[in-house]
# Entry
Amino acid sequence: MLRRFTVSMEEDLLDDFDSYIKDRNYQNRSEALRDLIRSRTVEKQWQADNDVMGVISLVYDHHQHKLQEKVTELQHDFHSQIISTTHVHMDHNNCLEVIIVRGKAGDVRQLANNLSALRGVRNANLSMSSTGKDLH
Ligand code: NI
# Structure
């Protein structure tokens, strides 16, 4: 059920908010505000080491010595946190790997950190989400 409430803020801040809304193509202020609140709530769950879901994406050069092996080995160490992994051969050198994860926030973050620390990993990104039961 949607409930309505009134928010007061300085005109400058509201102008900033409205240009933020315009940049992101939100239909109205309510939807933008809901998303902002959701993202802060998710952050809190991740800080509290709750059960979370997320996506780790990494780009690496598969010619780097033993890197492919290490990426696989690490994922086996965290097999109970990994739901699915997709590998895309981007070009002659680079691979993109997208890993869907679920588990304690601390474990998932640890996996992402360990992957990103591997030599030859060019870009590792963890996008955090909440588990479905917490989503409204
Ligand atoms: Ni590849």
Remarks:
- The mean pLDDT is 92.
- The chain has two domains: 11-47, 51-130.
- The chain is about 40% helix and 30% strand.
- Strands lie at 51-61, 82-89, 94-104, 121-130.
